[in-house]
């Protein structure tokens, strides 16, 4: 449906677009997922991998919750991977009380070309008592040991987390250092903030984006393209849809269509907001020269880059690229111009004069953002 429009790569996984179906215990299995095959990724599960988690799930079912329970968990997992393998990029969200089942599941996932996702998200008391789900967030050393051992299999590994349980930046950095590829963040606001800030806590996505190079899947309250775009513009590489898929089965097809149109129009579907609009550090690519007091200086301080270094980095990148030019723009070069979705007749005139399209301009700005952050990382 979208071809190579997005060029998303996570190890051996190549999702066709940045829209995912989220795991929902007792709901998201291969049969349910079939109707959402246009998604770039389907995350099945959560599946229980051992007797202890299956027994805990039985207790949850007894009190009215939905869960997947199986007498032969690995055979069940393998059958689910086989049933879903031709739909799209597949991930399996799993739970276990010890490391061995994770390792076995990782081998099955890799063999199938799927992603393995550690469930560090479930907060049901029966699971917490086993040290499973959200309990892993409070045991970062244990979680990181799981990650290191699982990654020895070569599987592409995701960790599903819940925001505002522990320090999200410290957690994400630990997950990245341990070797995980993806962080799937349920951006749930703090309980006291839910009334004041309905929906997702977008600030968490931004903080993790500014602090790690992990592939970020944003989750929570993705109900339309505006809510998805809000997550994208704060640093999410992909968004996942959960309960909205139950109430509106066509939502994923609609989101895929809209984000594809936006990508064709702009060339950078998850371009950040401008720094002065609250954007993450990728937005340094859109900032002008640091010649007046503004939010840029705070962002540079956070990035550990001086104003002089910033000017040098952007000038070095722009040399011999089309954005080096821009006579008539504010600073004589499109290196310092803003994103294409912000109206500017000076920038647009410069683009027209050199025959550079909006999409080409934004793709160069995306490479510029990567260059700036790489220099920041090397400096650090």
UniProtKB/TrEMBL annotation:
Chain ranges of the DUS-like FMN-binding domain: 21-256
A Pfam family that the UniProt record links to this protein: Dus
InterPro entries: Aldolase_TIM, DUS-like_FMN-bd, Methan_mark_9, MJ0144_FMN
UniProt-listed NCBIfam families: methan_mark_9
Name of this chain's protein: DUS-like FMN-binding domain-containing protein
Protein's organism: Candidatus Methanoperedens nitratireducens
């Amino acid at each position: 449906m979208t071809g190579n429009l997005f060029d998303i790569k996570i190890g051996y996984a190549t999702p066709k677009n940045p829209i995912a179906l989220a795991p929902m215990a007792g709901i998201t299995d291969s049969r349910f997922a079939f109707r959402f095959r246009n998604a770039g990724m389907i995350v099945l599960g959560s599946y229980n991998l051992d007797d202890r988690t299956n027994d805990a799930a039985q207790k949850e079912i007894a009190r009215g919750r939905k869960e997947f329970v199986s007498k032969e968990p690995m055979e069940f997992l393998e059958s689910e991977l086989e049933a879903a393998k031709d739909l799209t990029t597949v991930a399996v969200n799993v739970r276990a009380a010890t490391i061995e089942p994770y390792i076995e599941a990782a081998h099955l996932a890799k063999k199938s070309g799927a992603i393995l996702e550690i469930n560090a998200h479930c907060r049901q008391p029966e699971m917490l008592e086993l040290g499973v789900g959200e309990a892993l967030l409070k045991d970062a050393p244990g979680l990181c040991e799981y990650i290191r051992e699982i990654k020895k299999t070569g599987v592409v590994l995701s960790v599903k987390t819940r925001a505002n349980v522990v320090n999200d930046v410290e957690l994400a950095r630990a997950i990245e250092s341990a070797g995980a590829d993806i962080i799937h963040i349920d951006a749930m606001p703090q309980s006291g903030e839910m009334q004041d800030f309905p929906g997702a806590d977008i600030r968490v996505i931004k903080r993790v984006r500014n602090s790690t190079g992990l592939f970020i899947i944003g989750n929570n309250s993705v109900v339309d393209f505006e809510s998805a775009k809000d997550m994208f513009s704060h640093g999410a590489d992909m968004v996942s849809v959960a309960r909205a898929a139950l109430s509106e089965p066509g939502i994923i097809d609609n989101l895929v269509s809209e984000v594809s149109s936006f990508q064709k129009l702009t060339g950078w579907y998850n371009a950040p907001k401008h720094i002065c609009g609250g954007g993450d550090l990728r937005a340094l690519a859109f900032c002008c020269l640091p010649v007046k007091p503004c939010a840029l200086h705070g962002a540079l301080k956070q990035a550990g880059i001086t104003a002089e270094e910033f000017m040098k980095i952007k000038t070095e990148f722009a040399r011999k690229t089309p954005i080096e030019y821009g006579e008539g723009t504010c600073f004589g070069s499109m290196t310092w111009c803003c994103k294409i979705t912000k109206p500017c007749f000076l920038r647009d005139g410069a683009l027209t004069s050199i025959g550079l399209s909006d999409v080409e301009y934004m793709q160069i700005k995306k490479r510029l953002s990567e260059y700036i952050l790489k220099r920041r990382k090397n400096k650090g």
